[in-house]
UniProtKB/TrEMBL annotation:
This is Melanocyte-stimulating hormone receptor. PANTHER family: G-PROTEIN COUPLED RECEPTOR. It is found in: Cell membrane. Receptor for MSH (alpha, beta and gamma) and ACTH. The activity of this receptor is mediated by G proteins which activate adenylate cyclase. Mediates melanogenesis, the production of eumelanin (black/brown) and phaeomelanin (red/yellow), via regulation of cAMP signaling in melanocytes. GO terms for biological process: regulation of gene expression. One of its GO terms (cellular component) is plasma membrane. It comes from Myodes glareolus. It is a multi-pass membrane protein. Pfam families: 7tm_1. Belongs to the G-protein coupled receptor 1 family. Keywords: Cell membrane, G-protein coupled receptor, Glycoprotein, Membrane, Receptor, Transducer, Transmembrane, Transmembrane helix. InterPro entries: GPCR_Rhodpsn, GPCR_Rhodpsn_7TM, Melcrt_ACTH_rcpt, MSH_rcpt. The lineage of its organism: Eukaryota, Metazoa, Chordata, Craniata, Vertebrata. The keyword Transmembrane helix applies.
């Protein structure tokens, strides 16, 4: 990958039109005076990475400590936390190295910096792929628990969950290595964008179907107990709001990054696209924000997990 100095951020090889069309460079003034570039300080990467790190470590510790949480669903949530943890560790390490290089406290050869950058790129790309996979698996798990409730424990068993988890980790490492190795191929970027759209479509279809079933169930209960229609409508509106927040956060946090990759393929020389490319660090910040929000959505809403976490924190004091 091309090295762009100590200022180069994570997956910086994807933040360049040269990855697709190396002979068509953009001049710095080609974006125009109207281009808005959001400056992201290294301190923000470091602080958000540390917040995500603490959050996801607590989730992993709580699930590991409580044997009642050793079910397939919590195994998937734990793996999602591990994926987000990898994002946090990558961000914290990379930002610390950048600050040390800028301060002159760390002097090393360019070849070593290049190798370290490659390792971090694979780590962050693998964590992104695994995070998206586990978000999809959690949606599938919840779908089965609702539509196949009586057969859930025979369908989603711990051995099957473990095999799925191992498969996802192996595939994530393999494909992230492949993506970083052949990052300058258009097909690689299109595969990443297609993968994101597939996960978004999967989650949207499953969660909308679950919401529809929940509303139908609420309607049946309301008819049985002759409750008011407003109560059923309130339940459906609450469910719709929750679904909108869940999918909205997913799309807002991950969408800009994959839009960036798609625009590298579609319009590498267009001034508007070039302006978007300049905000690559902002898109990475949104992904870090996703790793902060995931525990709040998928883990901390569990009462038993919160109780275990409270015990862990009290014992640590």
């Amino acid at each position: 990958m091309p090295t762009q100095g100590p200022q180069k951020r994570l997956l910086g090889s994807l933040n360049s039109t040269s990855t697709v069309t190396p002979h068509l460079g953009l001049a710095t003034n080609q974006t125009g005076p109207w281009c808005l570039q959001v400056s992201i300080p290294d301190g923000l990467f470091l602080s958000l990475g540390l917040v995500s790190l603490v959050e996801n470590v607590l989730v992993v510790i709580a699930i590991t400590k409580n044997r009642n949480l050793h079910s397939p669903m919590y195994c998937f949530i734990c793996c999602l936390a591990l994926s987000d943890l990898m994002v946090s560790i990558s961000i914290v390490l990379e930002t610390a190295i950048i600050l040390l290089l800028e301060a002159g406290a760390l002097v090393t050869q360019a070849a070593l910096v290049q190798q370290l950058d490659n390792v971090m790129d694979v780590l962050i790309c693998g964590s992104m792929v695994s995070s998206l996979c586990f978000l999809g698996v959690i949606a599938i798990d919840r779908y089965i628990s609702i539509f196949y409730a009586l057969r859930y424990h025979s369908i989603v068993t711990l051995p099957r969950a473990r095999r799925a988890i191992v498969g996802i980790w192996v595939a994530s490492i393999f494909f992230s290595t492949l993506f970083i190795t052949y990052y300058n191929h258009t097909a690689v970027l299109l595969c990443l964008v297609t993968f994101f759209l597939a996960m978004l479509a999967l989650m949207a279809i499953l969660y909308v179907h679950m919401l529809t079933r929940a509303c139908q169930h609420a309607q049946g209960i309301a008819r049985l107990h002759k409750r008011q229609r407003s109560a059923r409508q309130g339940f459906c509106l609450k469910g719709a709001a929750t679904l909108t927040i869940l999918l909205g956060i997913f799309f807002l946090c991950w969408g800009p990054f994959f839009l960036h990759l798609l625009l590298i393929v579609l319009c590498p020389q267009h001034p508007t696209c070039s302006c978007i490319f300049k905000n690559f660090n902002l898109f990475l910040i949104l992904i870090i924000f996703s790793s902060i929000v995931d525990p709040l959505i998928y883990a901390f809403r569990s009462q038993e997990l919160r109780m275990t976490l409270r015990e862990v924190l009290l014992c640590s004091w």
